[in-house]
Amino acid sequence: MRYIRTPRRNNGGLRVARWQRGMPPHLPSMLTRQSNRNFKYLVPGFDSTLTSLRVGLTTFVSSGKTTISSYTAVPSMAAKKLKNSYVTLIGDREAALAPSSVFLDRLSKLPKGQDEVDIILNGSHKHLFNSRLTDGIVKILCDAIIDSGVAIGVLDLGTNGLGDTAAAELAKLFETGATPVREIHLQGNAFGPSACKVLCEAFGNPQGAKPEVLNLNGNPIGEDGGVAVSRILGEGCNLRTLNLGNTEMGTRAIIAVAKMMWYNNSIHVLNLENPRMFDLQESTTFHIAKMIRTNGTLQQLYLGKHKMRDDGAASIAQYMEDNTNIKILDLRANEISIAGAEALAILLMKGACGLSALNLAGNKIQDQGAHALGVALRTCRTLVDLDVRNNSIGNSGLLAIADAMNQNTAIQRLQVFGNKFEEAAADAFSELVTNRFSYFQVECDVRPYIVDGVSMVAKENLPEDMVKVVY
Q1: Residue 140 forms beta bridges with which residues?
Q2: Which one of 112, 196, 377, 448 has the minimum C-beta count within 10 Å?
Q3: Considering the entire predicted model, what is its pTM?
Q4: Per-residue pLDDT of the chain (471 residues; tens, 9 = 90+)
Q5: Structural domain boundaries of the chain?
Q6: Would you state the torsion angle of the CA atoms of residues 432, 435, 440, 441, taken in this order, to the nearest 10 degrees?
Q7: CA–CA separation, 155 vs 117, rounded Å?
Q8: What are the two backbone dihedrals, phi and then psi, of residue 257, each rounded to the nearest 5 degrees?
Q9: CB 286 within 8 A of CB 314
Q10: Residue 200 carries which DSSP code?
Q11: In 3D, which of 83, 78, 80, 60 has the Cα closest to residue 70?
Q12: What is the rounded distance in angstroms from the CA atom of residue 310 to the CA atom of residue 318?
């Protein structure tokens, strides 16, 4: 069949060709003006220049037949099974309302061929902020997962205010192990000690789920909950990341976790920030220090807000000499002063540890501690990230750090804002930031500027909290 084209003008005044016979109305086409003002019909899909203009479909013309193939992502079979089970249990009417509608929409966008289903329903997201999950929704969700039998990659139910009822339903999901779950994020809910015990009993079941990531940050699990978590850290533990920060654990729970970590060989990241400590004897520090000496797999340790003083920091530094695996040590917002900073500086000078990132923000190391760290920075070749913000460091201490940075070639990120910058220190860091840091691409959280001929510094926001360490 031959097509006859007739040049016409569209509303924009451009000449187009109208195919008068037999042209399929849905077939996309493109006409290109040639130098002789003739038009040539181009088939999208055969010309690479049209790739950016093909939206959703490609047309193939072969032997008078037209085939249309969609670019729209086809949901995976696992997501489809879970979606059907969920809609069956909750009903069409509720499925059209948030948060169910948000969940179903996200399921439909999962790519084809993905064996695991990621369920991310964090209540802090803008789509769920005003319609967060309830215990009843969690029950239906767990039943749908069990009915469909799909494997879960990431289960994020954080910041939803879930309580003991939701924890019991999640425990039913985890206790049989029939549904594998790789990451579990339950941060920012209202799980208390009893809810934590139920969840840990499910994880402790020999046939139960063995997640690699468990995040309970911000849940008031208390002493009993922390002890329950410690019991799943023994033989058979598959966790790689355990986040127990801000969980109101006390001395007994911290010691229980530390003792189990002596022999744990799976956890790489451990967060024990902000426990409830009511004594000044640093009774937990010795157990944590012994954990550091004996554990051979831990790579990141977060001990912020532990009320740690100089003796505790010295114990940590002493036992760190026997550990070459820990790369990130976070001691922010403690009560470490000059002696503790000197002990950590000696650790860095010896070079026995493999420490790559050290966070001392929010302590009180002052000028003498900064001088000790400055001496360590001259020879240390492993540390790439140092944070000493808000440490009451004066002009001489800042100058010592600046002078050391003129010789250090390892640091990739330095954070010093929040200390007592005078004109001499501001001049020194102005020269560093402008010249050496710019050349070696060192990130620094101060931005120099001049007012009436006087050097000053302002805060420079850095993109991430700490440098990503490659193990």
Answers
A1: none
A2: 112
A3: 0.82
A4: 444 444 444 444 443 333 333 444 443 333 333 333 333 333 333 343 333 323 332 333 333 333 333 333 445 789 999 999 999 999 999 999 999 999 999 999 888 777 899 999 999 999 999 999 999 999 999 999 999 999 999 999 999 999 999 999 999 999 988 889 999 999 999 999 999 999 999 999 999 999 999 999 999 999 999 999 999 999 889 999 999 999 999 999 999 999 999 999 999 999 999 999 888 788 899 999 999 999 999 999 999 999 999 999 999 999 999 999 999 999 999 999 999 999 999 999 998 889 999 999 999 999 999 999 999 999 999 999 999 999 999 999 999 999 999 999 999 999 999 999 999 999 999 999 999 999 999 999 999 999 999 999 999 999 865 544 433
A5: 5-70, 308-471
A6: 80
A7: 9
A8: -65, -45
A9: no
A10: H
A11: 60
A12: 12
Three-class SS state of 326: coil
Phi, psi of 396 (to 5 degrees): -65, -40
Reduced to 3 states (helix: H, G, I; strand: E, B; else coil), residue 243 is: strand
How many whole angstroms separate alpha carbon 13 and alpha carbon 168? 68
Nearest to 385 by CA among 352, 413, 427: 413
Q: Which of 346, 296, 338 is nearest to 316 (CA)?
A: 346
Structure tokens at 411: 């640091």
Using the Cα atoms of residue 72, residue 146, residue 241 and residue 295 in order, give the sign of their dihedral: negative
Alpha-carbon Rg for the chain, nearest whole angstrom, is: 30
Nearest CA-CA partner of 157 in 181, 193, 177? 181
- Rounded to 5°, angle at Cα 244 from 243 and 248: 160
Q: How many CB atoms lie within 10 A of CB 276?
A: 13
Q: Tokens 């550990």 appear where?
A: 323
- Tokens 């560093």 belong to 432
Phi, psi of 66 (to 5 degrees): -120, 130
Asked if omega into 206 is within 30° of 0 (cis), the reply is no
Length of the chain: 471
DSSP 301-368: EE-TTS---HHHHHHHHHHHTT-SS--EEE-TTS---HHHHHHHHHHHHHT-S---EEE-TTS--HHH
Q: List the 443-444 sheet strands across, edge first.
A: 116-120, 151-156, 181-185, 213-215, 241-243, 269-271, 300-302, 328-330, 357-359, 385-387, 413-415, 443-444
Helix, strand, coil percentages, rounded to 5, for the chain: 35, 20, 45
CA quadruple 358, 319, 273, 295: dihedral, nearest 10: 110
> Of the candidates 96, 78, 76, which has an alpha carbon nearest to the alpha carbon of residue 145?
78
Q: CA torsion, points 241, 247, 248, 250, in degrees to nearest 10?
A: -20
The third-level CATH classification (topology) of the domain covering 308-471 is 3.80.10
CA distance 15 to 7: 6
Residue 468 one-letter amino acid = K
